[in-house]
Design brief:
By secondary structure, the chain is α/β, with parallel strands linked by helices. Helix content is 27%, strand content 18%. It has helices spanning 25-30, 53-64, 85-91; strands at residues 13-18, 35-39, 69-74. The chain starts with 12 loop residues before the first strand and ends with a helix.
């Protein structure tokens, strides 16, 4: 991971619709102001990722796009369950 990302690169906003987000506290401080999270499954305010897939995807994005603003939307509970039509309606 780049500790000192270039400052002359504009930030982009990238959305991840996945199983959620569960970053360690030190990572949350490192990416403060560059992570947005919303849970469309249970409406929880606290970050949750029961599978780890969304968390892994966010980590990879920060490695390749260190200036990105990453918006994580939890739309799947366990990675197996299909998208619920109610969840799809909330995301729209």
């Amino acid at each position: 991971m780049l500790r000192n990302p270039p400052t002359n690169v504009p930030s982009v906003r990238i959305a991840i619709l996945d199983t959620g987000l569960n970053l360690p506290e030190e990572a949350m401080y490192a990416f403060e102001g560059r992570i947005e999270y919303k849970d469309f499954v249970d409406g929880e305010r606290q970050q949750i990722d029961l599978v780890g897939h969304g968390t892994h995807a966010a980590g990879l994005l920060f490695k390749v796009a260190p200036n990105a603003i990453v918006c994580v939307a939890r739309v799947v509970r366990d990675g197996i369950t299909k998208l619920d039509t109610a969840v799809i309606a909330k995301v729209k």
